[in-house]
């Protein structure tokens, strides 16, 4: 099991910057990083960000305190952050990812299994040969 040190925070006010998100997270633990995701094309906030804590125990506290909390008229969404492509996972009260299967326990295994499934399905398409 891996300790989760990052929390995803969604539905943030669009005018918020990294320091605003960090201030919000400090209520639940020591924050070592806060990043509001910025759209490359417009330079504006995309309305979500990530909090990184020094201790995994702060993540479930932040989730409990922030999920559904209203900030500037917007209900926040908060959950444990996981690597891209893994999807939502369950986190126990200590901030550890709960293992449902091998794909969740090892995100790299999930990626390799997914690519194998795609490769098998591509072979099964009739009439598609090598060009």
Main sheet characteristics: 4 strands, antiparallel
* Count of discrete alpha- or pi-helical segments spanning 4 or more residues: 4
Radius of gyration: 19 Å
The class by helix and strand makeup works out as alpha+beta
Mean pLDDT: 79
Major sheet strand order: 2-3-1-6
Structure report:
The chain is built from 4 helices and 6 strands. The strands form 2 sheets. A 4-stranded antiparallel sheet has the order 2-3-1-6. The chain has a two-stranded antiparallel sheet with strand order 4-5. The termini are far apart. The chain has 131 residues and is an alpha+beta fold. Helix content is 29%, strand content 23%.
How would you briefly describe this protein structure?
By secondary structure, this protein is α+β, with helices and mostly antiparallel strands. It has 4 helices and 6 strands; from the N terminus they run βαββαβββαα.
